[in-house]
Structure formats: C-alpha cells, structure tokens
Amino acid sequence: MLTKKITYTDFDGNQVTEECQFHLTKSELMKMELGEVGGMYAALEKMVKESDTPKLVEYFDKFITSSYGKRSEDGKRFIKNAQLTEEFVQGLAYDELVVELLSNPDEAAAFFQGILPKELSAQIDPSEIEAAKEKANVAALEMIGKNSKESSDADDSNS
Asked: Which of 38, 115, 131, 158 could cross-link with 67 by S-S, CB 3.0 to 4.6 Å?
C-alpha cells in the first residue's frame, strides 16, 4: 500500500495537502494481466512502440483509479468502491497526481512500485525499473515531439 501526500491549491485559493492511499492486490493484478492479449507488459510495450498516447494515458489512468481506496481502521481491508473513486477523480488531488506522474517518470515508477503488494514489489529488479523509466522518457519525448509537430502543421494549414 502506498500513502501519498498530494498538495494542491483548492478552488478557494487555499493550499491543501491530502493523504491518499493506493493499493493493488495480487488478484487485481492477475485480472489485469489476464485481461490483455499477451499480458499487460506486452500491451504497454506495444503502446509505447506505436506512440499510442491516448491508450497509454487511458492505461495509466486505469492504474491510478483502480488502486485508489482507503485502508480500514483495523488494517484488514483496503476499501474501494465507485463512490470513493468518483469523489477522488472529481477532486484536485487527482488532477495534481496525474500531472505529476505524467510529467515525471521517476515519480511514476515510484508510484507504480508503491501500489504493488510488498512481496511483488520486492521481486522487481532495479534494472527493470531503470529500463522502464528510460522507455517512459523516450515515449514522453516522442509524444511531445509528435504533438508539437501536429500543432505546427495545424498552424501552417491555418495560415
């Protein structure tokens, strides 16, 4: 389980810090893995290779929203439901988190490692994390370049 402090400015101009909790169980990860042809890793690699920005963002969002919840007071459950998720997604903490993770591969890697069950997180080879961050950096640069070129082409056609 990952507890993350997220600071943002609310609609009244006040700086607010929220503690948000995220966790994916082994069974949730297994369902995600089995829900993709060839598995999650292959699906993500394909999206990066094809620079499929919309699908990458959608997948990224799925991990955030699927992992959000609240730890029960007795520590025996991690409570997730549609209402909790909807309230989180409608809030400014979610907005701040998405911007932070999409613009910082190191933070994204730490987030994804943090939401995994401890026994799975401990099995991840640090070199795999570095390789994933490098791919994320390359993909982000390609997306920025692709979006800049599309904006430039649109500007040229409007002239």
From this structure: 115
Contact at 8 Å (CB) between 4 and 22?
A: yes
Centre a 10 Å sphere on the Cβ of residue 96 and count the other Cβ atoms it contains.
Answer: 17
Max distance between CA atoms of the chain, in angstroms, equals: 64
Global model pTM greater than 0.85: no
Contacts within 8 Å (CB) and 24+ apart, 142-147: 142/51, 143/51, 143/53, 146/51, 146/53, 147/53
Residue 75, phi then psi, degrees to nearest 5: 75, 10
pLDDT tens for 14-42 read 999 999 999 999 899 888 888 888 887 78
The pLDDT, as a whole number, for residue 56 is 81
The answer to whether residue 150 scores a pLDDT higher than 70 is no
Domain assignment of residue 83, given as a range? 2-158
Dist CA 32 CA 39 (whole Å): 8
